[in-house]
TrEMBL record:
<comment type="similarity">
    <text>Belongs to the glycosyl hydrolase 29 family.</text>
</comment>
<dbReference type="Pfam" id="PF01120">
    <property type="entry name" value="Alpha_L_fucos"/>
</dbReference>
<protein>
    <recommendedName>
        <fullName>alpha-L-fucosidase</fullName>
        <ecNumber>3.2.1.51</ecNumber>
    </recommendedName>
</protein>
<comment type="function">
    <text>Alpha-L-fucosidase is responsible for hydrolyzing the alpha-1,6-linked fucose joined to the reducing-end N-acetylglucosamine of the carbohydrate moieties of glycoproteins.</text>
</comment>
<dbReference type="InterPro" id="IPR057739">
    <property type="entry name" value="Glyco_hydro_29_N"/>
</dbReference>
<keyword id="KW-0378">Hydrolase</keyword>
<dbReference type="InterPro" id="IPR016286">
    <property type="entry name" value="FUC_metazoa-typ"/>
</dbReference>
<keyword id="KW-0326">Glycosidase</keyword>
<dbReference type="InterPro" id="IPR000933">
    <property type="entry name" value="Glyco_hydro_29"/>
</dbReference>
<dbReference type="InterPro" id="IPR013780">
    <property type="entry name" value="Glyco_hydro_b"/>
</dbReference>
<keyword id="KW-0732">Signal</keyword>
<dbReference type="InterPro" id="IPR017853">
    <property type="entry name" value="GH"/>
</dbReference>
<feature type="domain" description="Glycoside hydrolase family 29 N-terminal">
    <location>
        <begin position="6"/>
        <end position="333"/>
    </location>
</feature>
Length: 435
C-alpha cells in the first residue's frame, strides 16, 4: 500500500523507534514540565530554579548511548518547552542555559553525542512561550497567569512575539548543522496554523533544512489529524500524525487511501518532565509489545525518558532501556523497516508485521496449544519459517488435522506437538519467507 511520505524521509518510517527527552528547569523541581501552569507560578517564583540550574551529572553521551543500545534510531530533545527556557544559546533571549551556572550550550553537546551514536537528531520546540511578555496571558487557557487580574488589560504585541518565535526557530535550523526532525508543540483553540504564521515559518525551515521531518502540530494536536489526510494538505500540515498517549485502532489513511505515517509519543512512566514520585515505569515487555502493535498499524513509538534534575537517566529508566535493547539486538529484523502485513488479519496470538513482499514476521505473545496456526497463510505460499532470535528452523506441521484448514499453515514451535512455554516470553518472533 502506498505510503504518504517523501522518499528522503522514508528513514523516519523505517526507524520505528525513537527517544524523546524532556529536560529543563522543571526537571530540578520534579513536578512535571507543566509545573508553572498547574501551580500558577509566576516568573519570579520560577526564577530560583534558573539561578541555580547546574545539572552536574549531565553527560550527552549517556543519553545517546542509552538510546542507541535500546535499539532506538532517532532522538528528540526539548530545545525549548512552554516555560520559554532555552537549552541552547539563543541570541534573542536572556532566558537561556548559557546564562545559568551550568553555562554550556546543552543542545550543541546533545547533537554532537547523538550524531556520534548514529542517531537521527531532532529538536522539540514549543510554539507556546510563558516567559515572553507578548504571549497572551489573561484569557489564555494554559498560561500560568490565566485569569490573573494583573493581566486583564494586558497590551501585547503579537507580531513581535511571532518575529521572536520565528527567529528562534531560524537559529536552530541554521546554527546546529543538519537536523532530521523538528517537533513543534502545540496548537489549540485559535492558536493554530496561520496564527503562528505557519506558512512563512515552514518556508523558512524548509529553505534551510529541505529534508527535515515535521510533526503535524503547527496545525493541530489531537482534535482530528489536520490537513495531512486531505487531498491537498497545507504547507504546514507536517509529515506525520502525532497521537499522544493513544494508539490508533487501525492504520490511518488519507482521502486517497494512502497510508499516513504516525508516531505515538508516550513516556516510560506517566511524566514527560522528571517526577521522582512517579514510579509507574512501563516494563520492557509492555513497551516492546506496544511497539509491535504500533508497527502493525503503520506507527512509530517515540518513548520519553525523563532525565532527573542532575541531568542523568535514573536506574529504573536505564534498566528498562537495557532490557529493551537485549530484545532488539536479537529481533530488530522484525521491527525496523516493518509495517502492516497487507491482507492479513490480526492473529489471536499476537501480531503480524511485514518487511517486504517475501517477508512476514509472526510476533507471538501467547503460546499455542500444540502447533501454532499461521492464519491467512497457506503452506503452498511459504518457503521457510525460522525463529528470528537464533535463526533456527521451525518445522511445518504435517498433522492430518491441519489439512482441514487449507488457508492456514501450522508450525511446530516445540517437538512432537508438545505444549511448552515460549522460548521468548516478551515476543517470540518467527520469520516467514513467502514465494
Ligand atoms: O511536551 C509534552 C507535553 O507537555 C505537551 N506535549 C507533550 C509532548 C502537552 N501535553 N498535553 N498538552 C500539551 C496539551 C495540554 C493538556 C492539558 Fe493539562 C490538559 C492542559 C491542561 C489539562 C496536562 C494535564 C497538562 C496539564 C494538565
Amino acid at each position: 500500500m502506498k505510503q504518504k511520505i517523501h522518499p528522503n524521509k522514508q528513514w523516519f518510517i523505517d526507524s520505528r523507534f525513537g527517544m524523546f527527552i524532556h529536560f529543563g528547569l522543571y526537571s530540578s523541581i520534579g513536578r512535571g514540565e507543566w509545573v508553572r501552569s498547574s501551580e500558577l507560578m509566576t516568573i519570579e517564583a520560577y526564577q530560583p530554579y534558573f539561578d541555580s540550574f547546574n545539572p552536574r551529572a549531565f553527560d550527552a553521551e549517556q543519553w545517546a548511548k542509552a538510546a542507541s543500545e535500546a535499539g532506538m534510531k532517532y532522538i528528540i530533545l526539548t530545545a525549548k518547552h512552554h516555560d520559554g527556557f532555552c537549552l541552547y544559546d539563543s541570541k534573542y533571549t536572556d532566558y537561556k542555559i548559557t546564562n545559568t551556572p551550568f553555562g554550556r550550550d546543552l543542545v550543541a553537546e546533545y547533537l554532537e553525542a547523538a550524531r556520534k551514536y548514529n542517531l537521527k537528531v531532532g529538536l522539540y520546540f514549543s510554539l507556546i512561550d510563558w516567559y515572553h511578555p507578548d504571549f497572551p496571558k489573561y484569557a489564555d487557557r494554559h498560561h500560568p497567569m490565566r485569569g490573573n487580574e494583573a493581566y486583564r488589560d494586558e497590551d501585547i504585541d503579537w507580531e513581535n512575539y511571532l518575529t521572536f518565535m520565528h527567529n528562534q526557530v531560524e537559529e536552530l535550523v541554521t546554527q546546529y548543522g543538519e537536523l532530521d526532525i523538528m517537533w513543534f508543540d502545540f496548537s489549540y483553540d485559535d492558536m493554530s496554523g496561520e496564527k503562528w504564521d505557519a506558512e512563512k515559518l515552514m518556508n523558512m525551515v524548509s529553505q534551510h533544512q529541505p529534508n527535515i521531518v515535521i510533526d503535524n502540530r503547527l496545525e493541530t494536536s489531537g482534535e482530528g489529524f489536520g490537513s495531512i489526510v486531505d487531498a491537498e494538505p497545507t504547507s504546514y500540515a507536517g509529515d506525520y500524525i502525532s497521537p499522544e498517549h493513544i494508539i490508533p485502532p487501525y492504520p490511518i489513511k488519507d482521502v486517497n487511501g494512502n497510508l499516513v505515517p504516525w508516531e505515538l509519543c508516550t513516556s516510560i512512566n506517566n511524566s514527560w518532565g522528571y517526577d521522582p514520585t512517579d514510579c509507574s515505569y512501563k516494563s520492557a515487555k509492555f513497551i516492546i509489545r506496544k511497539l509491535v502493535e504500533c508497527i502493525s498499524k503503520n506507527g512509530n513509538i517515540l518513548l520519553n525518558i525523563p532525565p532527573d534534575g542532575t541531568g542523568k537517566f535514573n536506574t529504573q529508566s536505564l534498566e528498562v532501556l537495557s532490557e529493551i535493547g537485549d530484545w532488539m539486538s536479537l529481533n530488530g529484523d522484525a521491527i525496523y523497516e516493518n509495517g502492516p502485513a497487507i491482507g492479513l488479519e490480526k492473529p489471536e496470538w499476537g501480531y503480524y508485521t511485514q518487511k517486504d513482499d517475501q517477508t512476514i514476521y509472526a510476533h507471538i505473545f501467547d503460546g499455542p496449544l500444540g502447533v501454532l496456526p499461521l492464519p491467512g497463510l497457506a503452506s503452498s505460499q511459504i518457503t521457510s519459517v525460522k525463529r528470528v532470535m537464533d535463526n533456527s528452523v521451525v518445522k511445518i506441521s504435517d498433522s492430518w488435522t491441519a489439512l482441514a484448514f487449507p488457508d492456514t499453515t501450522f508450525v511446530e514451535l516445540h517437538n512432537n506437538h508438545a505444549t511448552e512455554a515460549l522460548a521468548d516470553d516478551i515476543d517470540m518472533v518467527l520469520e516467514i519467507k513467502l514465494k
